[in-house]
Amino acid sequence: MVHTNIEWWSMFWSLLWGIWLRRNAWVFEGKMVDLAEIQQNTMSIIGEYEKANEATSTVNLGAATVVQKWEKLEAGWYKVNSDVAMSNDGHIGFGGIIRNYEEDIMAATILGGHCGYYCPASKGRQECCYTIAEALTAKHALQIAIEASLTKIVLETNNIKVCRHLKNNIHENTSFGFIIKDILELAKNCIDRCCL
């Protein structure tokens, strides 16, 4: 059975995320989260998302403009969004979602706290790690889209440094710069070029 109802999918992905957070709470903090709490949080997340979708600004990296609402893509194009979560002890999780021009979810990816990336506890170091993690998750989500044979891609990120470096083709000799270079290389697999 294929569900085409967007509310069903919103609930499905929100519940999945809640289960992932419950797992992380158990693994990293030894805390057991009640299933009823996950269900309640799911409904809150959906409500918050609907409110945010009405007014939140987003940056479209392809057009380099700020828009008030999610803009529909042209037919045949796909939008790749990615984000990072960091636990208090420095473990990092990646997530990405790929939607088609009708806003249907085509693929999603999550790498939890044991994905091999860890940030030490110092605050300044965490800020640096977080930016690197944002670049890594953008790379991972783009790679998933390309492996799914999608070639007309708009990559979006909420990290201004990642955005600026991709738009201006800046990739210095640092860990962050090498990841940006990898993303730009991946973009060559797209038709013409991924809109970054």
TrEMBL record:
Keywords: Signal. Residues 1-18 form the signal peptide. It comes from the Eukaryota. Transmembrane segments: none annotated. GO terms for molecular function: nucleic acid binding; RNA-DNA hybrid ribonuclease activity. It holds the Pfam family RVT_3. Residues 82-190 form the RNase H type-1 domain. This is RNase H type-1 domain-containing protein.
